[in-house]
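Weekly sync, protein design subgroup
Attendees: M.S., D.O., the rotation student, P.L. (late)

Item 1: inverse folding check
M.S. brought a backbone from last month's batch and wanted to see whether the design step gives back something sensible before we order anything. D.O. pointed out we never logged the input encoding, so this time it goes straight into the notes. Structure tokens as presented (354 positions):
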């Protein structure tokens, strides 16, 4: 029904307007959805533990979809095993001028240049404090990014403010260093910049009560650059999110392919898998990886897991596939694990990267 009826209607509407309308509807209907729509049934094949956190399944909602934590009630009911909200910036900011989100239907892709539009850490912290007075049935991650008004030299203080405000409400925190839409942000992935930033956040994490901290990286990095990030993780952060959107346009056919911004969806699949495999090898499988980019099916998710991802996330595949996508992927993953003789997700992680 979604692909035949609902998606064609939504796709006639300007993408960001459509997205905001869907979030508003889910925010309003979320409590009803959560009451009558059951979360995904727990399955020993699909349950997994990462950084000491128990995940009912390895398929989560990616950062960027619910930037301001508006529709939290809905995500467990769609079958997600965890949700990542944000990116949240320390200061409120509108992001880049519209239009800034584009569908590339022929490529099953999106281009966004949103630019970390965020109500700010204080607003999101207040919203999470009110919502989380009741238990949330799945792990919740909060993704934080640098405010546009802050320079890279000011980034440690800027990230630390968001970290302090949002840490109490997160099961894990994702430090986003890799959006292509905030000028200079990706320079924070260099070893000279990432070490002092992560040192500052690690210090705050220990002071507040240590929680898993992940670093989100770009798909366009060289192996040498990835090696620098992997080395910087030691004693500072606990995991990696691979990857953000790409600046490359190779093979795109859609009319909007030359719009500025980052590409997500099908064209990102192979780039992301390469980065996951490389990071898994660089860290010898000791640093958990959340794989995101080009996941539309169980086979796509399984490819990421075998390359080294302990968990996976959906964004563009969820937009194109609709609300049933997480459950379809989970059912397919179970079949694939059974076919290959694995007793659980953890047994399949990295089997093609070792």
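Designed sequence read out in the meeting:
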């Amino acid at each position: 029904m979604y692909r035949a009826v609902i998606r064609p209607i939504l796709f006639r509407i300007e993408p960001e307007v459509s997205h905001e309308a869907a979030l508003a509807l889910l925010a309003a209907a979320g409590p009803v959805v959560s009451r009558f729509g059951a979360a995904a049934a727990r399955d020993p094949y699909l349950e997994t533990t990462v950084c000491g956190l128990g995940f009912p399944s390895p398929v989560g909602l990616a950062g960027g979809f619910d930037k301001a934590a508006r529709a939290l009630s809905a995500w467990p009911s769609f079958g997600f095993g965890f949700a990542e909200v944000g990116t949240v910036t320390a200061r409120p900011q509108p992001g880049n001028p519209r239009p800034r989100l584009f569908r590339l239907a022929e490529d099953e892709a999106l281009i966004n240049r949103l630019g970390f539009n965020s109500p700010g850490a204080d607003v999101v912290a207040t919203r999470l404090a009110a919502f989380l007075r009741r238990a949330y049935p799945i792990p919740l991650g909060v993704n934080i990014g640098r405010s546009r008004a802050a320079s890279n030299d000011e980034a440690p203080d800027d990230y630390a403010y968001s970290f302090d405000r949002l840490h109490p409400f997160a099961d894990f925190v994702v430090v986003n260093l890799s959006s292509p839409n905030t000028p200079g942000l990706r320079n924070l992935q260099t070893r000279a910049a990432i070490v002092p930033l992560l040192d500052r956040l690690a210090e705050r994490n220990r002071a507040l009560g240590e929680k898993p901290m992940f670093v989100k990286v770009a798909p366009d990095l060289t192996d040498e650059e990835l090696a620098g990030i992997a080395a910087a993780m030691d004693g500072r952060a606990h995991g990696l999110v691979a990857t953000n959107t790409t600046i490359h346009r190779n093979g795109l056919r859609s009319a909007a392919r030359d719009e500025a911004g980052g590409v997500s969806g099908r064209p990102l699949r192979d780039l992301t898998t390469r980065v996951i495999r490389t990071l898994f090898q660089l860290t010898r499988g000791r640093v958990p990886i959340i794989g995101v980019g080009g996941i539309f099916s169980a086979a796509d998710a399984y490819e990421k897991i075998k390359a080294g991802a302990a968990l996976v996330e959906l964004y563009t595949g969820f937009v194109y596939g609709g609300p049933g996508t997480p459950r379809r992927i989970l059912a397919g993953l179970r079949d694939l694990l059974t076919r290959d003789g694995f007793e659980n997700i953890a047994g399949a992680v990295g089997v093609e990267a070792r």
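Discussion: Residues 15-36 form the longest helix (22 residues). The longest strand covers residues 82-89.
Action: P.L. to compare against the previous round before Friday.
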